[in-house]
Write a structure and sequence with these properties.
By secondary structure, the protein is α+β, with helices and mostly antiparallel strands. 50% of the residues lie in helices and 10% in strands.
């Protein structure tokens, strides 16, 4: 059985634009998945990237145009300048880590719920009420927001180290069990073709 390690950030607009296509691709090929939320700004610092706010104005303008086009392409609502961005991504990431460990709900829905809350619903995903709401909507116990904080923090830090060690430099980033790497929501079709043995 194929396996995909999914490195992403709960504040990443391009992770949001992936929607649940990754989950659809994994299901199509019978692939298992491990969700690995990380601090993408810290990752940029480790791998030569530049945080969006520090990029040249031409790059910032292109990013805004591209986000709007990609959102239309995939039928997803988006606010290019959300009210609560950036915010602290750690609490939502800890909730995903706790939910993955606990099981019983839909992780893909949970991840997309946080991303949608930030990029389309003008919610602060660092707030406890938003975290509980997203957990419950995805079929998880909202009390997971209260548990596993230490484990979540440790796993979150490990995910960053693992990402840097394995060649991850942005989000979303997908790595298959044969070490094929795919960066960006616009590479999901290539991931699909790879799992089908076509590329």
């Amino acid at each position: 059985m194929a396996h995909i390690d999914y490195f992403f950030a709960t504040l990443s607009p391009f992770s949001y634009l992936a929607g649940t296509r990754l989950e659809d691709i994994a299901a199509k090929h019978g692939a298992s998945m491990t969700y690995k939320p990380l601090d993408v700004i810290a990752l940029f610092g480790r791998t030569g990237g530049t945080p969006p706010k520090d990029r040249h104005p031409s790059r910032q303008e292109y990013r805004a145009q591209d986000l709007a086009r990609q959102a239309k392409k995939h039928g997803l609502p988006i606010n290019i300048r959300p009210a609560h961005w950036p915010t602290n991504p750690a609490p939502s990431s800890y909730a995903i880590i706790a939910a993955q460990k606990a099981g019983g709900g839909d992780l893909g829905q949970l991840v997309h719920g946080f991303l949608r809350a930030c990029w389309a619903e003008e919610k602060d995903i660092a707030e406890d009420s938003v975290i509980r709401e997203c957990l419950q909507a995805a079929g998880f116990d909202p009390k997971l927001a209260d548990s596993g904080l230490l484990d979540g923090a440790e796993t979150y830090a490990r995910n960053l180290e693992e990402a840097a060690d394995r060649g991850v430099f942005g989000a979303p980033f997908y790595i298959t069990d044969d070490d094929q790497r795919f960066w960006g929501n616009d590479r999901l079709d290539d991931l699909d073709l790879h799992l089908a043995g076509k590329i």
